[in-house]
Amino acid sequence: MSRSEAPAEIESKPGATKPDPILKVSGLVRQFGGLKAVDVEHLEIERNKITALIGPNGAGKTTFFNLITGFDQPNAGEWTYNGHPMKALGPHQMAKQGMVRTFQLTKSLSKLTVIENMKLGAANQVGESLGKALLPFTWKKQEAEIERRADALLDRFNMSHMRSEFAASLSGGQRKLLEMARALMAEPEIVMLDEPMAGVNPALTQELLGHVKELREEGRTIVFVEHDMDVVRDISDWVVVMAQGQIIAEGTHAEIGANQEVIDAYLGRHHDEEMSSDKAQESGTESFSQSEPDENSGLEKESNDE
Ligand SMILES: Nc1ncnc2c1ncn2[C@@H]1O[C@H](COP(=O)(O)OP(=O)(O)O)[C@@H](O)[C@H]1O
Ligand SMILES: [Mg+2]
């Protein structure tokens, strides 16, 4: 349990400095027309911890992930990863540097098999360069090594029996597992998971949570977006709260649960549901747990029906 206690020296406030940040973000802005979807003054992510990124729908969590991992470009701002500026890099280069992400809507290619999806996760390492194509021996050796790693990960994620199934035939939860396993093919140092538990049944959620904790045991850093406050409490070392593009709070789960600004940000949107929810009655710290799936995770649940 002590493992998940954040070090006492980290202040519970937006933009708090961390003893050993793997990621440092400054002045990050992404505007869509007149809307500032992301407006992060300062954020540091502590190395080898599990950080939960929470906030109401439309807070800018996915956009923030997109920016940091090179899938979208900011209007302003910069960030460093292991002290190196990252701004100009695209997703492939980010992955090579050790930063990978998964998507709120799973991106497994349904017309490919599970093992083929896994191998694609290593595509960044093989490279698609002409040089490699001209060296079939090197390529074959690398291909065999990639397949060996893919099979080892499938085994770890209890998916070996689905190795040759098309991704389309997997349940929503299995697809989430596949996506996490595939992200590990890039041997990332930091893994950013966008709603990894959305649309996943309770049994598989426990399994996924176990895998996330394992990633930390292996020394990786995890940032994940999650709405379920039980999940956040269970696995997070640190919680970052976003609302309207900004970081409005940071702290341990307990600190965040007692933060009036956070409660207001949630209740502002979910007042009616929360008042009638069982969880809100059980405990004050649960009062900002989200009972409504957002538009996107709603789609996810439909398309990934277990
Ligand atoms: N490509 C886009 N074009 C225009 N608006 C967008 C785009 N992507 C996101 N937004 C808007 O930016 C805000 C933040 O969205 P998002 O990052 O998906 O929030 P979250 O993941 O926290 O629910 C929302 O108001 C959303 O409608
Ligand atoms: Mg989102």
Quickly list its features.
306 residues; alpha/beta; Rossmann fold; 2 domains; 4-stranded antiparallel sheet; disordered C terminus; binds adenosine-5'-diphosphate; binds magnesium ion
Give the arrangement of secondary structure elements:
Layout: E1 21-32, E2 35-46, E3 50-54, H1 61-68, E4 76-81, E5 84-85, H2 91-97, E6 99-101, H3 114-120, H4 123-126, H5 130-133, H6 136-156, H7 172-184, E7 190-194, H8 202-217, E8 221-225, H9 229-235, E9 238-243, E10 246-251, H10 253-257, H11 260-276, H12 278-282, H13 295-303
Parallel strand pairs: 3-8, 3-9, 6-7, 7-8
Antiparallel strand pairs: 1-2, 1-4, 4-5, 9-10
Helix pairs in contact: 3-7
The structure holds adenosine-5'-diphosphate and magnesium ion.
Descriptive account of the structure:
- This protein is α/β, with parallel strands linked by helices and 306 residues long.
- 40% of the residues lie in helices and 20% in strands.
- The chain has helices spanning 61-68, 91-97, 114-120, 123-126, 130-133, 136-156, 172-184, 202-217, 229-235, 253-257, 260-276, 278-282, 295-303; strands spanning 21-32, 35-46, 50-54, 76-81, 84-85, 99-101, 190-194, 221-225, 238-243, 246-251.
- The strands form two sheets. The protein has a six-stranded mixed β-sheet with strand order 6-7-8-3-9-10, with helices on both faces. The chain has a four-stranded antiparallel β-sheet with strand order 2-1-4-5, covered by helices on one side.
- α3 (114-120) runs parallel beside α7.
- The protein is globular, with a radius of gyration of 19 Å.
- The two termini are 32 Å apart.
- Residues 271-306 have low confidence and may be disordered.
- Bound molecules: adenosine-5'-diphosphate (ADP) and magnesium ion.
- Residues 61-62, 104, 296 line the site of magnesium ion.
